[in-house]
Design brief:
The chain is mostly helical and about 150 residues long. The protein contains 3 helices and 2 strands, in the order H-H-E-E-H.
Length: about 150
Amino acid sequence: MSMDLENFEEHLHDILRREDAPAGFAERVLARVSELDAGTRAFPDRKNVELRSTGPVENRPAGWQPAPQGTRRIAVSRPEAWFRRPFALALAATIAAVAIVPAVVFDYQRREARGLKAEQDLMMALAITRTQLQMARAKAQHRQGTTQ
């Protein structure tokens, strides 16, 4: 099924046309916001779940109150930055070294092998050139000896 550009634009316009919100939508949104402001969050599949920080008392937000009876608590910890934990920093450095060092060593070995190959090729070319020059010199001396 192929549509030309004009039909496509009309179809797209129909799909993306503005529609009014369903009745009571604004009230539901405002109720949800007030629940979140109160420190509770409603989950459709879980009843009476409350998210609270496990930080010290002085870090609790203003107006903090204990959860009502029968409410399960989900601890939300605030992890420290990874660079403040020495083990995490050592682990990150080890992983970086394990990832980088083999690549550097491989590249060094590859360059070294290419250098050795180039040196061998140069020595072979010089040996061939030396042999050819010796042969040319011998021919030149032979011709000079026969012409005199």
